[in-house]
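Design review, sub-item: ligand-bound model
Attendees: FS, YL, KQ
YL presented the inputs for the NAP complex:
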Amino acid sequence: MMSGEEAPTLQPEQEKQPDEEPPPAVSEAPQQSGSSSPVVAEEKPLSIRALVLTGYGGYDKVKLQVKTQKQQLAAGEVLVRVKACGLNFAELMGKQGLYELLPPPPVTLGMEGSGVIEAVGEDVKDRKVGDRVIMLIRSGMYQEVVVVAAGNTFLMPEQMSFEEGAALPVNYLTAYLMLFESANLKPGKSVLVHMAAGGVGVAVTQLCQTVPDVTVFGTASASKHEIISQGGVTHPIDYRTKDYVEEVRKISPKGVDIVLDPLGGSDTQKGFSLLKPLGMLIVFGAANCVTGQKKNLLALAKSWYNQLSLSMLKLMQTNKGVCGFHLGYIPDEQLIVRTMGKLLELYSQGKIKPRIDSCYHFEEATDAMKRMHERQNIGKVILLPEAKKEEEVPKSNPEPVENVEKTEAAVNEKKEETTEEVKAEG
Ligand SMILES: NC(=O)c1ccc[n+]([C@@H]2O[C@H](COP(=O)([O-])OP(=O)(O)OC[C@H]3O[C@@H](n4cnc5c(N)ncnc54)[C@H](OP(=O)(O)O)[C@@H]3O)[C@@H](O)[C@H]2O)c1
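KQ shared the predicted structure:
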């Protein structure tokens, strides 16, 4: 067992940086060195709690540790007290060493969050102390206080909760850019989305409803169908007990206009087969590679072996389109800023609203990851930096576990669990 106090204090400069810098639209939380024009002068670094990936493997590799955070700000930076963070599938993959944009361990996890600005650096004109902001960075969000570039913050609408703010950027930017930039969704079209009850799936469903007469086919575990139907999925399909290709064809013999594929492997082939002429398949994930809590080489090999392989001639002769999407490789910062603006407007108009599945304190990070990994979540899983109070019930809104089917992998995995867990610092 390792509490934050027992864990070795981790200096920010100990966290390794990636060898190669990809072209980021979003940046990592800046490190301690290289600051200029300090606004909070001569203040000692803060001691803060952070969720650190200490190596690749199981849940035990994510530890609650105490590390130091600089208070001196460089020009253009803001210091934010983090209130809520979003858990993404990318963190499950990163834990297994399968997310190439995450710097190698030890590294503080987390790409998105929300909080309150406590200090601003020089040259920051459009943010002030007290502003409630959403943040999007490459890694380093799972900590109590974070320093980010002001350009990576977005002002939150008044009525938005911190949990909603933390749930919005990754899932909704991904859904919006795929639907409206890559696939050019128009009225009357049909969309097949996998993982329809997850964070991106819910965002896709809500955004489809902003366009008239769009039919949404969504694959999800059967226990989630009622909720996703209420949320706007026209045809929920239980991919665990049924062949979803057959199910789609029963309803729409000609197939669908858009397939959003976060699974990879043989599902990409199936998605391509389901496309109507002039349809578009967007590949944006490889969830099929994640079967247990540790890296599974067999699953990786299976996905690779079954991947879609096409000739350009076939593309031409079938009149189908295939494209990829990865938010982390969007180099256009202005596109991100503009799209966040549109999403916040849609939120204020009541057209989109992140569905919060559950909230877990940092001490309960293992439970949060398990909830996603064992396919229990409907909507977004949130992590809260604030220390858990003794009397508090651990989860805010999870479905009873008995209502949710578990995968064989998830059940087997229970046997591998380590006894180490993160604990409150007291
Ligand atoms: N390219 C990008 O920029 C980008 C950005 C964000 C997310 N993504 C991808 O989008 C997908 C969804 O991400 P998310 O963060 O919104 O997660 P999520 O959908 O909330 O993920 C959990 C849900 O996915 C389903 N699932 C299907 N296969 C799974 C597996 N192998 N392991 C665990 N759950 C599985 C489960 O629901 P059911 O059992 O109901 O299916 C589970 O409840 C992921 O593949 C992620 O990598 C890509």
